[in-house]
Write a structure and sequence with these properties.
The protein has about 525 residues and is an alpha/beta fold. The protein is built from 17 helices and 22 strands. Strands 7-6-5-8-10-9 form a six-stranded mixed β-sheet, with helices on both faces. The protein has a six-stranded mixed β-sheet with strand order 21-20-11-12-13-22, sandwiched between helices.
Length: about 525
Amino acid sequence: MAKEFLGWVVELELEPPSLQNNTADADRLKKALSGKIGASHITIDLVVLKDLSTRLKEWGYRCRCVFFKNYGNWQLIDIIACDDPEPIAAIAVDLGTTRVVMDLIDLHTGKRVLQSAFDNPQFEIGPDILERIHFADKPGGLDRLNALIISAINDEIRRMCEETGIRKNRVYLMAVAGNTTMSHLFLGISPHGIIREPYIPPTNTPGAIKADALGIMINDKGSVFVFPNVGSYFGGDLIAGALHAGFHQSEAVSLLVDVGTNAEVLLGNRDWLVACAGAAGPALEGGVSEIGMTAGPGVIDTVTIDPDTRAFRIGTIEDKPPKGICGSGMIDLAAALFLSGMMDIRGRLVPDACGDRYRVIDGVATLVLVERDVSDTGEALTISQVDLNSLIRSKAAMYTILETIMEYVGIGFADIETFYVAGTFGSFIKPRSAITIGMIPDLPEKTYSSLGNSSLKGAARLLVERDAMDQVDAIRDRITYIELNVNQDFMNRFSAAKFLPHTDAARFPSVPLISTQSL
């Protein structure tokens, strides 16, 4: 039997008022709604109360109620006539540092009507959150950053509504999942303390806020829920991801990693959860190299090298001519270079092994990945030693973050049943390549599971499953957060992880030992 759809819209029929039943219209409505959804207390805003009686009488005391639960507080957002044919909608938002993705959802069916995405316009201020935080400290900086993202979201709402024929006034709910800094900039709250000791954000639980207070152009009575964060570098995007993955309800121990501007990690099961985050993302997203870019048509996402002939085989998204390389492509490249002997255990290019692909450009050792005559740009696509050094640091940081959280809990990698990898990075990464360079633990490949955009999926789930809010509460309250910025063991482990695959090769038994390479 299909599970009953328990969303945020229900239909009610009230007993008309009479001398025998002289309870106020609002109180009768709250009592009926409470009985229907199991709420102990419901509030109704003045703006709804003003014409509540008039509308109920006009509709024969039958209506559809749009409501929401802001943590433990239930609120009636609006009432709508039962015979009103227009859709009632909501929008889920993955508020990424680089990219923003939005789902328009029908609240009657819980189904997605349309998905859309756009580049985060705050990128013009700075590509990473550090630059944006510094900019927010300047006079007018915070207002500028806030206006950029609010305006862009409103433009996208307008476009999505025009494409689907759904009026903006029929969008009543929005759920926003982003990292801690992005959430604060969305709210117009200064993120100043996030990067400064003791690394305390202004708020961890912003909750649901009136759309008009944020300048979000949906129904004026609408509610915008911002997912909670658990520390400066562990944001609502991971809470939403955990909600989607559901491992917080499982007895088995699982691990969730989302690599964006930072690498955010959540470890645990239904009994306990531990989280931490660290700066490991930019190079792993392809964001350090001059030819690095986010995944898209023509972007290199796979690289293999014949170990005997050292011939390159390069794959691009949609098989378009190569124009750049994404994070998964960088990891593939590094793994292939290492296994072919073209890069040593320190991550340094080996000139003799690289052959005519090895160049020195402006005094920097460089590898030609794609010659100019076959690239989409008309220029050779090259990876420098500086790019590779950055990747090695990033992979070392990623592994060290994982190692540190496991050590804190007192369990080993072998105790993990499922290793979830989230985000665009997780959609393209090949576990074998990541294991080869020592970025993730040497576990059976079946252990690894890609979640795709788990942040967006979690936000969407909150909008279609009434009990999801309680689960967000449970996830947030159960998490113990480790602050890596003051963890000395982290730095010691990091140094050991800056080799391929690691200074302790026994940790990676499935990675072939290259006997000709040495420290």
